[in-house]
Amino acid sequence: MSGALEIREGESGFVFYRYHPSLAAAAVFVALFAINTLVHAFQLARYRTWYFIPFVIGGIVEAIGYGGRIMSSNETPDWSGGTYILQTVFILIGPALMAASIYMILGRLIRLVGGEHLSFIPVNWMSKIFVTIDVISILMQIAGGAMLATADTESMYNAGEDIIISALFMQLAAFGVFVAVAGLFYRRIIQQPTAASRSAEFPWQRYLWLLFAGSALILVRSIFRVAEYLSGSSGLLMANEVFLYVFDAQLMVAVTVLFNVYHPSRIIYTPRRKVLQDESEVSSHVEVQPV
């Protein structure tokens, strides 16, 4: 994914890339994200899982981001700031958008099994808290990416990096708390099962583990991005394109595939009604799809 390339540093010591961006690799991931996102869009429309809109947008954003890398590849070695901003910002914020939908799934699963009383964070506040943090993280990453691309001094470049690193740490912290909240709920409902959770018609445990798996993939990706920016533009991680594809692109495609194969609509299927909060109403109003 890298080739012989003469690197010409500006006064700030910053260059857009320290390798020749691979057109082939970027094209493969544009296709993978586009195909998986189309499937997600179909499932969203068919089953009215509107809480998956951010996930679909995240997939579109990822595809556009890697499309930006195709454009950068065609510009080598005279890269433009516009295409660099496009690929940097869109690839950074795509996972955060997907995370927003993952946050919302947990609340719906908790309601589905009538386990609101077992949740550490009130279900009505859960999505609001985590999605708000997610939005702040996205805005910070956009601002940081724009500063990197337009930096003409070392201090401005460092400021952009610091903003991105702070946003990624915020995302890591939110995901860590989210996984802890989900894990605590799982432990409590195993110890104090509700009537709905005992029903064989609701494979809720499978989808809770799905949340753990998806969260783990995004966590690994976020840890990589933090390490990448901490090491700087001339560090091993940022100076070698292969790491981006192994620890970001590949993991995020895996997340889209995972939620395509085990789409939450299989157990949370409410075409004309919101997910009910009263445990006594769950079995009579929530239509469960065959798994």
TrEMBL record:
It comes from the Eukaryota. It is found in: Membrane. Keywords: Membrane, Transmembrane, Transmembrane helix. Its main location: membrane. The chain crosses the membrane at residues 20-39, 51-72, 84-106, 127-151, 163-186, 207-224, 244-263. GO terms for cellular component: membrane. It holds the Pfam family RTA1. This is Uu.00g021570.m01.CDS01. It is a multi-pass membrane protein. InterPro entries: RTA1 (IPR007568).
